[in-house]
Amino acid sequence: MNEYVIEMLNITKEFPGIRANDDITLRLRRGEIHALLGENGAGKSTLMSVLFGLYQPEKGVIKKDGEVVRIKNPNDANSLNIGMVHQHFKLVEVFTVLENIILGVEPNKFGFLEKKEARKKVVSLSERYGLKIDPDALIEDISVGMQQRVEILKMLYRDNDILIFDEPTAVLTPQEIEELMHIMRSFAAEGKSILFITHKLNEIMAVADRCTVLRKGKCIGTVDVKDTDKAKLSRMMVGRDVEFVVTKGETQLGDTVLEVKNLTVPSKLHKNNAVKDVSFHVRAGEIVCLAGIEGNGQTECVYALTGLEKPSAGTVTLMGQPIVLIGRKRLKQAVGSLSKIKSVHMPIRQRSKLGMSHIPEDRQKFGLVLDYSLEENLVLQRYWEPMFQNHGFIRKLAVRQYAEKLIKQYDIRSGQGPITSARSMSGGNQQKAIVAREMDKNPDLLVAVQPTRGLDVGAIEYIHKQLVAARDNGKGVFLVSLELDEVMNVSDRILVMYEGEIVGEFDPKTTTVEELGLYMAGAKKQSSEGTVH
Question: Where do the domains of the chain lie, and which CATH numbers do they carry?
């Protein structure tokens, strides 16, 4: 039997203006977990898309079990038992979870769709691997983390034995990541072979057998993980040493830039409220982090702050001005006379002009217009300003020069520079574009939801420095993160949310990851006086 279950030999793949894969050779052993590491735009997802049949290479061959195969499309890949969990989900939003999982391999009897057995298999797989889902929920109504579980179950449902995971942990909680690592090890023990794309060096060290490193489309080398360390891998990836610890001085607190009182936001998924009577504040010169297991109200809280969703009650004040004022009691307190009452729900553009920037959780849904160019996306929040328009006409040269400045400053890599379609860019570089646009506005309040999602260690280091720089320049930063390392390293104050409520407030200098975990799981809760019960 051939030692290698998959061999990708001398693969070259080109796009307009860029050679994404340049003569890359990758070999996957039977029953191993093989990590694929590289900077954003290094060519990792492109290489895996070639293996899965989404792209056709200009040069090179693919072998399975020693035999040359031609993979023209994903159906060919599936017939070879190759499955892929995509970084950007391939889901139909108006279909249910179950319909998405069985799509393309629908069980039928006499031409009629038979869902009963499929449902049993999906529920059994979800219970076996701890991937809790609601088979009848619509994709458009579930969280990003839940959508990730659907992608994994799609692959498990097809009984694939060569599994490609493209950034599978980018949107998972620490507990879910640990569970996924366990699942991957069990897959390998069953004889399945795994190709695992990640930027997280801890995950590679914890679960991978070997690691292949790509840089700017070329293969730097393949190493045995047991014989290397994080510092060596990061040097191979970015070509320099990387700082893993965030350096920041003491806080210099200023005025309150964001004040939230008794905020309540209804849930779209159930009858209960997603956010329940929440109050907190963010002052100039501090980074306040909202931590919690995904699905406990963080997303709805951010949507209410940024204008994407209307709360049912509460007040939100930005730079001393009400941007949300809802609820009869609140309005009477604010206005004094019910006859004068009008609820306040400030439009998103007005919030932006008032000094709010927002790095959204879902970069493709809320962060970018995918069919616009990179330069157009970089001025989405500012195109009406005099520097970018004259009597209603866009000043294209000014937009081009501004885009080129941000591309250089934030190392945004794209095949055709400013005119590259946002859709064609790698996920990490899409994220860099959003971060560049929102941070360059010099906001008084930066709402940053998982700002380093899908970024390599070099880019994470840079973004963390930018967050600290904003804080040191007297700005307020409201960070929402699922990465406990990021929560502990970057924050000045930590708020933990559980089932829609703030259950604890912590100083990262005096708490531990284990303590935060207890509050995130609902095992502990502080009273309004700060005592634990």
Answer: 4-238 (3.40.50.300), 245-355+443-533 (3.40.50.300)
> pTM, whole model, 2 decimals?
0.71
* C-alpha distances in Å from residue 448, one per residue of 200, 293, 380, 466, 482: 20, 17, 17, 12, 12
Cβ pair 59, 12 in contact under 8 A: yes
- Identify whether the C-beta of residue 480 lies closer than 8 Å to the C-beta of residue 461: no
Length of the chain, in residues: 533
Q: Which sign does the torsion angle of CA 495, 498, 499, 501 carry? A: negative
Highest mean pLDDT among 39-43, 83-87, 129-133, 214-218: 214-218
- The number of angstroms, rounded, from the C-alpha of 318 to the middle of its chain's C-alpha atoms is 26
What 3-state class would DSSP assign to 506? Answer: strand
Residue type, 179: E
Sheet with 33-38, side-by-side order of all strands: 82-85, 162-166, 193-197, 33-38, 210-215, 218-224
- How far, rounded to the nearest angstrom, does the alpha carbon of residue 419 sit from its chain's CA centroid? 24
Euclidean distance between CA atoms 453 and 472, whole angstroms: 23
pLDDT at 338 (0 to 100): 43
Distance (Å, whole) CA 475 – CA 461: 19
- The 8-class DSSP code of residue 530 comes to S
Strand, helix or coil for residue 160: coil
Q: Can you read off the two tokens belonging to residue 285?
A: 């010169």
